[in-house]
Amino acid sequence: MKHVLSAKRFLSGITAAGLLALFCLCPLSAAADNESESPYTEISDAAGLAAIASAPESNYRLTKDIDLGSDWKPIPFRGKLDGNGHILYNLHVTDVGQDKRVTRDGNMKEYDTEFAGLFSVLENAEVSNLTLKGAFVDIAERSHCFAAILAGYCDNSVVNGCSVEGRVHMKNSGVNAGVAGIVGYGNGFFEECNAEVELIFDDRYREGKCEQFLGGILSCGIGKIKKCNVQINGYVSCHGYAHNGGIVGMYHHCGMDYTVREISYCVSKGQISFFEDNDDRRAYCSSIGGELLTPPKKLFRNRVSFKRNEVWDYSKILSPEECEQPDYEETVTPPDCTDWGYTAHKCRGCDYSWTDTYTPPQHDNGEWTIVSDSDYEREGLKRQYCNRCGKLTGEETIPIKKNNKTDISPQKKSNSKIIWAIAAGVGILLIVETGAMVYSGRKKALAKEQNQPETAASEGNSANADNVKSDETDK
Ligand SMILES: [Zn+2]
Ligand SMILES: [Zn+2]
After folding, report:
1. What is the pTM of this model?
2. 291-328 as b/e, with b when 16 or more CB fall inside 10 Å?
3. pLDDT, tens only, 123-133
4. Which residues, by Cβ under 5 Å, contact ligand 2, an ion?
5. What is the dihedral angle through the alpha carbons of 367, 373, 374, 377, rounded to the nearest 10 degrees?
6. Shared-domain flag, residues 300 and 419
7. Spatial contact of 250 and 212, defined as CB atoms under 8 Å apart
8. Checking phi first, is residue 459 left (phi over 0); if not, alpha (psi -120 to 50) or beta?
9. Which residues on adjacent β-strands are paired with residue 303?
10. Residues 370 and 407 occupy one common structural domain
11. Structure confidence at residue 15 as a pLDDT band (50, 70, 90)
12. Which sign, positive or negative, has the C-alpha torsion 456, 461, 462, 468?
């Protein structure tokens, strides 16, 4: 009965375990099916980010804020990048990426074009939850070129929940060219993106008339632009055709097949100062879209606080820096517990300023204080607090004390060895004694046997011997 019960229990145990295993495995296999895409590679430093270039179709996730410090070479990207709420700071780009693509102007004329930004080219990509802080994209002496902080070119991609803060400057020497906050040229889906940008376009092309584009989110292209906020400070010196907008410079399909055409729930603040040194005038500049050549199907609920500042003096290149010979004063603001540190550069002549060299927020860690010291039995605890805000910034255990205990324990070990040795010795002595007694018993019996008649002796003797043996063993 007992056996039957335990067998039943055993079987039901197996069944329960099996069900549990199935239960656990099912969601796993479902998840595996959902994640038929490649897994996410984690990125925690600038080298890891640059390594995207060697596998641009993979998926990535940031695990830290990253200082991009030195010159960044724009890379193409066709995967997914989850910024995971992290910040890439001090991006500095002075050159275009290697990848060229064809761009078109409003008349569908084609240009072999170069691109600059964190990414040169985004194609079927998805970038989300990423912030770029203190970025500077500075491009000169290039032909047809688009530059922006996130990407120069974008095709059929999603940019979601991304913020950029910084400057994009271009000295243009080609025809089709533009600067923007998020993306230079292309099409895509841009939602909940923010751009706080200083954009400067200085047209140096004199062989003909350039097609110039500038926009807080996109300088030239088409797509869905929704819930995006722009704070723009734009300066454009153009000797061709100017297309400037707070959100998008020129909204046009440019030959791209993108059906979702919407600009909604966006906020456009700031100003664009520009001149268009051209008798065949267009002079597009407005708060949302400079020129809406392909009209958006939805254009609503956008709010603006924007100044269109057209300038008629073409002799002076427009710039936020007003001095002929600027004189800058640098002030380093260190980070504190919650705010970033940075270096401010301010012109003594005109008060124009910009900031760079950001450093992440940092607590001012005080000395470690012992909460409870360790002893020979227990670990202790120590804590560290910020001198400024008093926040707990560190907590560590203090290891168990060793000195006396470690001295004693070898002694103990040797003592126990001695005890074991004594025990073993006693054991051996007992065995030897027992053996001796058995031996002497047999000897006595043998002596007896020799003094008795043969037949009786053999019986009695053996019995005696057995008795002795059993007596001894019973002991
Ligand atoms: Zn100045
Ligand atoms: Zn603090």
Report:
1. 0.76
2. bbbbebeebeebebebebeeeeeeeeebbbbeeeeeee
3. 999 999 999 99
4. 337, 363, 386, 388-389, 391
5. -160
6. no
7. no
8. alpha
9. 267
10. no
11. very low
12. positive
**Nearest ligand by distance to the CA of 328:** 1
How many angstroms is it from 355 CA to the middle of ligand 2?
23
Report how far ligand 2's centroid is from the alpha carbon of 3 (Å). Answer: 66
On the question of pLDDT at 418 being above 60, the answer is no
Overall number of domains in the chain: 3
213-264 confidence digits (pLDDT tens): 999 999 999 999 999 999 999 999 999 999 999 999 999 999 998 889 999 9
In the reported structure, the alpha carbon of residue 367 is separated from the centroid of ligand 2 by a whole-number distance in angstroms of: 13
- Reply yes or no on whether the pLDDT at 409 is more than 70: no
CATH number, position 50: 2.160.20
Contact 437, 443 (CB under 8 A): no
Show the domain range for 442. Answer: 403-474
Q: How far is the CA of 348 from the centre of ligand 1 (A)?
A: 6
What angle do the packed helices 454-474 and 403-450 form, to 10 degrees? Answer: 160
Q: Which-ligand-closest: CA of 321?
A: 1
Distance 347 CA to ligand 1 centre (A): 5
